[in-house]
């Protein structure tokens, strides 16, 4: 959609300093080595920069003094000075940390933070719209993830590199695996399931991760439709009158519809028997299978299709009949799930691709019923809702939080018979628990542990706080949402900006077959790396990781480290949601 829109080139944010500069750690940053923690002080900032009207706080490791100063990069002059907070020992990082708060300084420009003799990386303070390029790049990542199609230079050349590639995995000939064979669909039968996005650093496609991804992207659009109407992703569909985020999501939705069987059930995945070698998609010629059916996959499908029905309803002219088709597909899958409410999928013998197995079903029913109710306002779906006593942060395996998120986001539109105060109070209670976790963390993170996909959890915590701020106006929610955002972009003790292609030091060697095989230096831009993970450190050998006694540092920029730096569709989605929220506070 190009009418009256801003075209922004991902990867070249106006104050980005590309990783790979000639002088390593030129600003006094001392890296962690193998099995070691920092040897000296380091100043961590949001390397992508700060909005002038936003909170601005640097994290300082091994704080060498009680004072800090803000230095103008152009003149070399100190333009602001202040006192750091008191040092406190952060167990997860193995050292003392303190903070430098310069929120009151609002003059746009390019700066460094100086503490003692140590400097931060340079960063910008900018005006409203400062993060638009980040949003574009994080969404453009999905175009680069497209399966079954050529990625064309006219849409994929930026930052001095051309990320075009030949089509891979056409998936017009997918074989029915024996684990889902039936009289109507014998083993070896052929199905067609083209399109969609590759799930992560591999070339397989999974229903469950697709659905949770679509929730976060749809929420981003729902909360800021005008913002997305004016962002041009430069994708093949950009010339129509549909916001590009919805055009990109449609690529996944059309594939997702192919995952529903005639009886309403939903297949779990399209994949080969084993993960492919580290080759480009066009070189992956392994046989592809339709595998698995489960209650969880069906209910995730219900939720995603109910969302599709409402967000595409205004675009009937561009996508005729799709809104009703999506709702009908959701209702058929829901009926099947009601009749088959205990079916759990596990990988068949001989299959080692992603499993997404889940035997907890109540949260899936809650999410499915929530989305059906938000879309239809039908009392029957509301009456089915069994509100949990406690919610968990939403992620692929625990999804009742997605239902609460949608109910809270649309609470003002819901019918009068709904207990809106209960919904909003439940949402606020969870936001308060996130804020409490952050206050109680010396490092200021919302995580109780650093685990698989920790960065996506930070992003989702921030997105929850962002909506809480929109709903209730509590400035603490805004402050903490920004803190989550800043953490992802470099304000963390690893000193990485975790979004590829952004900041002064970003991941270069993510676990991604395309980035590994495309003969282009570094990683494809716009992807959120998984993040520190002290729970699993065997992929590259424990000796290659910073001492796992310090979980906040357990991150490795090596291709083998899928436990810390893989990329995934359901990790980028909360990043898109969070950046769109902080861009519009």
Describe the structure.
The chain is of the alpha+beta class and 585 residues long. It has 16 helices and 19 strands. It has helices spanning 132-144, 153-156, 207-223, 225-229, 244-257, 295-311, 322-339, 362-376, 379-384, 400-409, 420-440, 454-472, 475-488, 513-517, 562-565, 569-582, and strands at 6-7, 42-44, 50-51, 57-61, 67-72, 78-83, 88-90, 95-101, 109-115, 118-119, 123-126, 157-158, 161-162, 174-176, 190-191, 205-206, 231-232, 267-271, 289-293. The strands form five sheets. Strands 3, 5, 6, 9, 10 and 11 form a six-stranded mixed sheet that branches. A five-stranded mixed sheet has the order 15-14-19-18-16. Strands 2-4-8-7 form a four-stranded antiparallel sheet, with no helix packed on it. Strand 9 (109-115) and strand 10 (118-119) form a beta hairpin. The longest helix has 21 residues, at 420-440. The model is unreliable at 2-38 (pLDDT under 50).
The main sheet comes to: 6 strands, mixed
Helical stretch count?
16
Mean pLDDT: 93
Name the poorly predicted regions. 2-38
Number of strands: 19
Strand content: 5-15%
- What does the oligomeric state look like here? single chain
Helix amount: 25-40%
Q: What distance separates the N and C termini? A: 24 Å
Q: What Rg do the Cα atoms give?
A: 23 Å
Overall geometry = globular
Structural category = alpha+beta
């Amino acid at each position: 959609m190009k009418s009256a829109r801003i075209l922004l080139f991902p990867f070249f944010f106006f104050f980005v300093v590309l990783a790979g500069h000639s002088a390593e750690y030129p600003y006094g940053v001392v890296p962690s080595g193998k099995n070691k923690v920092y040897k000296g002080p380091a100043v961590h900032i949001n390397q992508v920069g700060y909005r002038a009207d936003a909170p601005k706080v640097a994290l300082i490791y091994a704080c060498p003094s009680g004072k800090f100063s803000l230095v103008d990069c152009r003149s070399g002059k100190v333009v602001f000075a202040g006192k750091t907070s008191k040092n406190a020992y952060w167990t997860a990082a193995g050292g003392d940390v303190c903070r430098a708060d310069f929120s009151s300084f609002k003059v746009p420009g390019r700066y460094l933070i100086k503490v003692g003799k140590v400097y931060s990386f340079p960063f910008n303070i900018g005006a409203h719209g400062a993060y638009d390029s980040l949003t574009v790049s994080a969404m453009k990542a999905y175009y680069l993830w497209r399966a079954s199609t050529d990625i064309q230079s006219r849409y994929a050349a930026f930052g001095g590199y051309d990320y075009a590639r030949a089509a891979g995995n056409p998936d017009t000939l997918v074989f029915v695996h024996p684990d889902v064979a039936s009289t109507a669909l014998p083993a070896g039968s052929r199905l067609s399931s083209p399109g969609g996005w590759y799930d992560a650093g591999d070339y397989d496609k999974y229903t469950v991760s697709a659905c949770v991804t679509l929730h976060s992207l749809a929420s981003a659009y729902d909360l800021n439709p005008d913002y997305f109407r004016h962002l041009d992703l430069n994708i093949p569909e950009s010339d129509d009158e549909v916001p590009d985020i919805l055009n990109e999501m449609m690529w996944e939705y059309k594939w997702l519809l192919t995952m529903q069987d005639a009886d309403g059930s939903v297949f779990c995945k399209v994949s080969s028997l084993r993960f492919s070698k580290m080759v480009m998609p066009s070189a992956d010629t392994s046989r592809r299978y339709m595998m698995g059916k489960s209650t969880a996959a069906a209910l995730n499908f219900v939720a995603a299709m109910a969302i599709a029905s409402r967000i595409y309803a205004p675009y009937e002219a561009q996508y005729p009949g799709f809104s009703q088709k999506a709702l009908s597909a959701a209702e058929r899958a829901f009926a099947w799930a009601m009749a088959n409410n205990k079916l759990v999928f596990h990988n068949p013998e001989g299959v080692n691709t992603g499993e997404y197995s889940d035997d907890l079903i109540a949260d899936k029913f809650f999410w499915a019923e929530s989305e059906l109710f938000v879309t239809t306002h039908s009392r029957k779906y509301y009456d089915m809702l069994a509100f949990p006593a406690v919610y968990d942060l939403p992620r692929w395996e625990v999804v009742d939080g997605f239902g609460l998120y949608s109910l809270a986001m649309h609470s003002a539109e819901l019918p009068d018979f709904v207990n809106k105060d209960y919904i909003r109070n439940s949402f606020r209670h969870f936001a308060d628990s996130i804020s409490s976790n952050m206050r109680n963390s010396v490092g200021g993170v919302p995580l109780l542990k650093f685990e698989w996909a920790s960065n996506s959890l930070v992003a989702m915590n921030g997105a929850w706080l962002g909506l809480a701020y929109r709903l209730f106006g509590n400035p603490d929610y805004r402050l903490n949402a920004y803190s989550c955002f800043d953490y992802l972009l470099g304000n963390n003790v690893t000193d990485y900006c975790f979004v590829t292609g952004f900041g002064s030091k970003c991941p270069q060697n993510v676990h991604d077959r395309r980035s590994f095989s495309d003969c282009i230096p570094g990683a494809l831009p716009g992807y959120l790396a998984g993040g520190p993970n002290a729970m699993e450190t065997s992929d590259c050998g424990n000796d290659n990781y910073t001492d796992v006694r310090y979980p906040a540092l357990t991150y490795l920029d090596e291709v083998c480290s899928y436990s810390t730096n893989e990329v995934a569709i359901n990790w980028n989605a909360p990043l898109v949601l969070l950046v769109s929220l902080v861009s519009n506070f």
